[in-house]
Amino acid sequence: MELSFTKSNGELDQAILDLIQKAEGIHHPEYVREMIISALKAGQETDYLADLKMLNNTMKEMRYTNKVFAPYRRKKKVTIFGSARTEPSEPIYQKCVEFSRELVRRGFMTITGGGGGIMQAGNLGAGSENSFAVNIRLPFEQSPNPVMAQNPRLITYKYFFNRKVAFVKEADAIAVFPGGFGTLDEAMEVFTLIQTGKTAPKPLVLIDDDSGYWDRFFEFVKASMLGRGLISAEDFSIFSISQSVEDAISVIEGFYHNYHSLRFVDGILVVRLTKELSDDQIETLSSEFPEIRHPGTVINRCLPFPEESDEPDLLNLPRIAFRFDHQHYGLLIAFIGRINTF
Description:
By secondary structure, the chain is of the alpha/beta class. The protein folds into three domains: 11-70, no CATH class; 72-255, Rossmann fold (3-Layer(aba) Sandwich); 259-339, no CATH class. The protein has helices at 11-23, 29-45, 49-69, 91-105, 118-126, 160-169, 181-195, 213-226, 245-255, 279-288, 329-339; strands at 77-81, 109-112, 131-136, 154-157, 173-176, 204-207, 240-242, 259-265, 268-273, 300-302, 319-323. A seven-stranded parallel beta sheet has the order 4-3-2-1-5-6-7, sandwiched between helices. A four-stranded antiparallel beta sheet has the order 8-9-11-10, with helices on one face. Helix 4 (91-105) runs parallel beside helix 5 and helix 4 packs parallel to helix 9. GO terms for molecular function: AMP nucleosidase activity. This is AMP nucleosidase. One of its GO terms (biological process) is cytokinin biosynthetic process.
């Protein structure tokens, strides 16, 4: 039988509906139905056992991720990346402890990879009760740190890609301390996701040590990437380098001074705000950022779109909307920065 996502599967559609009703308590059953159809189609199309195991484990890991994070959906969180090899005696370790402790004082929770080094420092400063750990099974260097070893907010993944989804999807900001290949991999993925609009804009702060680790990285990016035209000048809006804990936290808090969140609805970018903009402020944005709008379009205030009804807690926020040019996500970060000056 050839299965379809449309309701054209005869008795099978009724059997799936009966199963959903019998399970009870199913939210958004139309999407659960599609997941069941996907599983059945995978079973028909895939005879290679390793591929089915990967699909199965991926679904189970993502389901558990959602379960762990769901109670804290409205709590702001900062993901902390950094080396597992950083020793507690090193100044940058102590800076991370101070950073995460101050984050909690400002109302944030932290997310780390759950291992040693900078990850442990991030959990230590925040405290177990204000921390998440998204760990990965490795043959070395990655057992859960003692702060999080027995924590109900510890998740251990088989697959890096599921872990990376949790790091970015659940975070309102990303802080990156000096590290090795793994840290750079995580940081570069966030650069790419923000640059291409595959994740919502969020502050990406590179927290430096006394050796100028990130300053040297910046020089490389400027000379070898920008200098050869491999990135655009606006891409420098994607990240900032901070030398101090206070500066890093100011960047994170400042990003949400007036900007709240955004969403695309039928090609229109809707920017949700914490306070309404005046006509003069909208005109300032229009004149300073013409490139981010499609030619001939304007920035307007708007009411919530019907499609936003699935986020009922955000419906009371003031909004502006315009047709966004998707080539300018770097400028979009700068645009948000300008909104936060009002």
